[in-house]
Amino acid sequence: MLLAHILGLYRYPQVSHFSTSSLLSDRIQFRSFFRTVPSDAFQSRGLAQLVLHFGWTWIGLVAIDNDYGQQGIQMIKRDILKAGACVAFTETIISSQQDRNAPNIARVVKDSTATAVVIFSTDIDLVYLLDEMLRQNVTGKVWIASEAWATSAFLSVSKYSRLLYGTIGFALHSGSMPGFGGFLNRINPSMLIGNQWIKIFWEEVFSCKFQVPSNSSIKKCSGQESLENIRNSYNDISSLRVTYNIYTAVYVIAKALDDLGKCKKGYGPFTNGLCADIDSFEPWQLLHYMKKLRLTMSSGRQLFFNENGDPPAAYDIVNWQLSPGGQLRQVKVGSYDTSITSGNVFSINASHIEWRTEGPVPASVCSPSCPPGFRKAARTGKPLCCFQCIPCTYGEISNQTDSLQCYKCPWDMWPNPTQDHCVPKTEEFLSHEDPLGITLTATSISSSLVPVAIFGLFIYYRTTPIVRANNYYLSCLLLLSLMLCFLCSFLHWLPPV
Fold first, then answer.
1. CA torsion, points 471, 473, 479, 482, in degrees to nearest 10?
2. What family does this chain come from, according to its entry (predicted)?
3. Which of 26, 204, 280, 290 has the fewest CB neighbours in a 10 Å radius?
4. How far apart are CA 62 and CA 467, in angstroms?
5. Can you give the pTM of this predicted structure?
6. Three-class SS string for 424-442?
7. Which of 47, 157, 115, 184 is CA-nearest to residue 356?
């Protein structure tokens, strides 16, 4: 960063192939800094999206104690919390300690209920933690790797296969370099550049020596052996990542110089249409072309720099799977590319992922989801992701998973037995076909005939003194009312309204 700051003061363009710190995006401090790798800000955003894609809401975070680890872990923590997930723990790998704080971290990871653990670290520092986890028998975790160790050959050995199988993470985007494979295969010890290194490499690959004692059985190197039939990490160009970014950085400078040299006098970008002299240009003049640069790489991707000197972020999502030989290999299962304009920046093929559980996606939640018929209630002193499920009270329902509240049914409905939806209320009324209905009908009719008969007698003997003495009209009204009282029981046989 100090070098980038000094070069920026004098407007000397600098193109980095491996510096990912988000601090370098500050254009006030680093005015002429560019890079061909994405900023960690994009990686943190993408890792948070990866975590949420699998429904993991209870996440553990582990980071190295440098700018890369601490900046990265703070950014992903912010994005995770913003999306509604929770952080179970945050631990730091302390590089100044001999054991890197590994025993404590391994114990926290083992005891935590969080299954998914994001690790921002380099592979060298991570070895201490992995060895300690093997000693403490930490199992059942899904590791989410940052790009610094997501494709580490150093960790892809059988020793860690039981622990790291199923890991998923972000790796720098790979690309092809036309002609590079042929160049590697044409290298031989007679080349002057790097001759001593090439001889050492040659002896290792072909199991021979250039200087052989007369009585030795060791094969002598002729220097004419062919690398074309050799298959090892040296000439494996199937997934170039850091190398590809170095190539891209050189290509960017070459393209900017080419644009500067093609400037036509009178049509230049500087004052009065002036052009820069390709043999004696100023650093700020090349910087101008760097900012305006846009080119198409061999993969078809567009490369350009935004106002902060960052290229479009492009990562491969890789899954650590077992090879037939028991070694770990990184298989591409998705991508994260911000240059895609269709909106599908994040894509992943879940069917190609191998989990250590050899089943569905492992869960990483503090509390299981509340089914319909229940509502979530916070636990005192716990994060929002840790809750308890409370049944809805009588007369209320919840029809969604993880519902925050229950709702009352309309007046003409009530909850079903599981209280996950409302059903119409059942109409229940007395039918005249029921035994009780028949009994009540017969009783009502027979009882109503008694006041009717008396009413008839009152009419027949209405002129007699005894009837007149009993208030004839009032008695008739009472008899009619009594008859209607017996007959009103028929109203119970009508459907309710």
1. -100
2. Belongs to the G-protein coupled receptor 3 family.
3. 280
4. 106
5. 0.79
6. ECCCCCCCCCCHHHHHHHH
7. 115
Terminal alpha carbon distance of the chain: 81
Lookup: tokens for 466 = 């005894």
pLDDT over 90 at 468, yes or no? no
181: tokens are 């494979």
- CA 82 – CA 87 distance, rounded (Å): 11
Sign of the four-CA dihedral 337, 342, 347, 352: negative
- What value, to the nearest 5°, has the Cα angle with vertex 203 and ends 198 and 207? 150
Tens digit of pLDDT for each residue in 89-129?
Answer: 999 999 999 999 999 999 999 999 999 999 999 999 999 99
* Position 362, amino acid: P
> What pairing do the DSSP bridges indicate for beta strands 86-93 and 58-64?
parallel
Residue 316 makes CB contacts below 8 A (sequence gap 6+) with 170, 171, 172, 173, 174, 332, 334, 335
Please state the domain extents for the chain: 2-37+238-298, 40-175+313-352, 178-236, 374-424, 435-493
Mean pLDDT of 351-365: 90
Q: For the chain, what is the largest distance between any 2 Cα atoms, rounded to a whole number of angstroms?
A: 162
Residue 387, H or E segment: strand 387-391
Q: Which residue has the tokens 């039981």?
A: 162
Q: How far apart are CA 198 and CA 183, in angstroms?
A: 14
pLDDT at 76: 93
Least confident span in 348-357, 376-385, 472-481: 472-481
CA distance 37 to 34: 9
CA–CA dist 85, 100 (Å, integer): 28
> Angle 12-15-17 (CA atoms, 0-180°, nearest 5)?
160
Q: Residue 78 in contact with residue 71, Cβ under 8 Å?
A: no
> What tokens were used for 452?
């009717």
Amino acid at 133: M
Selecting from 3.40.1370.10, 3.30.450.40, 3.40.630.30, 3.40.50.2300, what CATH number does the domain 40-175+313-352 have? 3.40.50.2300
How many angstroms separate the CA atoms of 293 and 15, rounded? Answer: 13
